[in-house]
Amino acid sequence: MPDHAPAPGGDDPLGLHGVVPPTVTAFDEAGDVDSEATAAHASFVVDRGVHGVFPLGTNGEFALCTPDERERVVRAVVDAVGDAVPVIAGVGAPSTRETVANAERAVAAGADGVVAVTPYYYPLDAEAAVAHYRRVAGAVDVPLYVYHIPSKTGVHLDRETVAEIAAIDGVAGLKDSSKDVPWLGQLIDDVPELTYMAGSDSLLAPGLSLGCAGLVSAVANVAPELVVDCYESFDAGATDRARERQSTVYDVRAALKRGPYMAGVKAALSLRGDAPDAGGLRAPLRSMSDDERTALERDLAALGVL
Asked: What CA–CA distance (Å, rounded) separates 182 from 210?
């Protein structure tokens, strides 16, 4: 358990904390899921000290995968690292029915917990949001974590609604990617029994200062050593070192974002040399061009990532 970093919430049986990368889904040259490379990436980050893994998050391209592919991804990751760290699998979908089905399949594949993004595309009011999470939590016997990312879903939960969702049996935590610091800080104060996970690389050390127990970091997919050092420095009471590591995370994040959406992470993995190659992104997303890769390689080399 943490020393100086915030502890996980009392309602979280997994005690989720530390660095939990949203691991990538690897695709082969034909664009099919590469289970072996997907598992190898999970092992790559676990071998470098992360405290859990989150397959089928945004970086896992969950919205571009079929239900069968999602189950294969979860099973591959569980088989690779499930004995070492908690595996919390993304199960979100636009409909409650599909989310429940994904959750049941993820649990059958061995997931220790499930993460459900707020349903997207259609507007969702508070009553519908609470009913949705009640259905999902009631369908499985593992902890459920709410994934709040309004910029992608169009749904911003107010604090009162989150408090209602938190009261549902089985709801253990919340991953927040809203970047709304006042909202998150007040929510942690309102509902301290949940485990909170900072979901933006721009708010890793600040998230710990607010009360987040976990860091869900895209940068940790590429440079797990850097983000683990940030967390462990904070946990050891070395806050200056943690802020220094956060500063480097800002720079790595900026380098990864210089190309198409999410393409930087997979390009960086192929450049590291000691990491599994996760292939390209699934259409309609596109990979980096040669010029973009060259610029990324230069930036990451200067930052000591390669």
From this structure: 10
211 confidence band (pLDDT: 50, 70, 90):
very high
Nearest Cα to 102, choosing from 120, 117, 90? Answer: 90
Selected catalytic residue, list 99, 175, 196, 266: 175
CB 26 within 8 A of CB 37: yes
Amino acid of residue 180? D
What amino acid is encoded at 246 in this protein?
Q
Among candidate residues 201, 169, 186, 194, the one with its CA nearest the CA of residue 59: 201
In a domain, 228, yes or no: yes
pLDDT of residue 135: 98
- Assess whether 175 carries a catalytic annotation: yes
Question: What phi, psi does 28 have (nearest 5°)?
Answer: -85, -175
Query: Catalytic residue among 38, 58, 153, 161, which?
Result: 58
Per-residue pLDDT reduced to its tens digit, 260-296 = 999 999 999 999 999 999 999 999 999 999 999 999 9
Candidates 133, 145, 147, 231; catalytic one:
147
Catalytic annotation on 145? no
Report yes or no: 1 and 231 within 8 Å, Cβ to Cβ: no
Q: Catalytic site residue 294?
A: no
Q: Judge whether 231 counts as a catalytic residue.
A: no
Local structure of 28: helix, strand or coil? coil
- 125-146 residues labelled b (16+ CB within 10 A) or e (exposed): eeebbbebbbebbebbebbbbb
Total of domains in the chain: 1
Q: Alpha helices, DSSP H only, in the chain?
A: 35-47, 67-81, 96-108, 126-139, 150-153, 159-166, 181-190, 204-210, 219-222, 224-235, 239-256, 263-272, 290-302
180 lies in which domain range? 18-237
- CATH code: domain of residue 100: 3.20.20.70
